[in-house]
Amino acid sequence: MRKERLLAFLFFLTLIADVPTLAYYNDLWTPGRLVEWLVVRLPVKLSPFEIILIIMLATTRRRGPIAKPMVTAIYVSLASLFWAAAYGLARGGLVLPMYTQMICWIVSMITAMTVLTVCSTAADLYRINTAILYGAIWRACIANSFYIMSHDWDWTRRPACMTSHEDSALFVIGLAVLISRAIEFGSKQYIRQLVIWGPVIVMAIQVNNRRLAWASLVMALISIYFLLPTRGRALRTVNRALKVVIPIVAIYVTVGWGRSEKIFAPLQSFSSMGAGTVDKSTLARDNENVSMITMIQDAPLLGTGFGHEWIELDSSYTVPLTAFPFYHYSPHDSIMALLTFMGGFGFAGLWAVVPVSIFLNARTCRNSLRPDERSIAAAGVVQCIAFVNQAFGDMGGVGVPHIMVATLFSVGIASAARVSASSGARPYSSSRAT
Q: Which residues of the chain are modeled with pLDDT < 50?
């Protein structure tokens, strides 16, 4: 098996692997249990999947055109990360918590480098996105099945989620792949796939009960729309469809906003994000954010460095160490956490991969003449958006539990590096190994 195909297959296996943090783990056996070992961390603090990625990266010679700014941004990001670690150690930080604070970003950058090294063509990246799509469909089917079998459609007795919080990003990215392919290719095959699997994934988003998923989905749809070429059949087709869809959505929102019937459950997710919705969870998150804002004001440029805790202003919302030993090293809002630990200087270097990736993928959408490259780039933008939303809302960039989101983000980075060069949207450095 060629490395490109092996990498896509490994992506699929890691996305369907069952781990104890999944809601259905103790109640429902799936074949994903057979590949659980692939994502379980070994004593060396890496999973077999991550070790295989490192081996692939070390043994593969990079071929084909590549956008040098994206590779440079990855190196700058890693350098900023390790600078913050060194700075934290110099200030008396602890080594053990650094693993929790840094592992998501390290895995994401290593995965991005591996994907952009192994996948030298748009066809290879297309295959990776197909693996992600199949993973999203697999998890969506499990989420829907678990909901039906366990709760007999009684929405009042559903648990916090059906699979995991990470799957919010997976479902949205899977939908983005379906939508971008249906728009860009316009063939019956891809439209049929969207019609069949789109509702399955949307239902999974709803029963998985995560507000972040709906926010990411709306942002993904808006992004895909504005990424469409200003002149082309795809935009005209979408605009015609919107003339029908927008009035229906407007009526749905007008009638359903603030109502409790289950048909309006997606609107409840949005309304609960706004002002006036206050519960213990919201107050705890607010306490985290205000505490970190105070710390950022004390050290705006350099931060505290990794290995240090964020200091609570109000300890009444604290999480017991028995439940989460590294709570004070890994707050929920990863973006605020990174600003606290790295300061504005370190964060700017670390975060550079996000705007560079979105910019290069967006240029590909506007400049490429090939539908496969445009669909890959559109999915790449959504992969970045889903990551940023997850990082802002629920430990997407700091903390061990959410490695999947960082892995999906890495595909968007690799897509920016490869298709922006092959499409001519960005002049590349060289076709030689670098």
A: 430-434
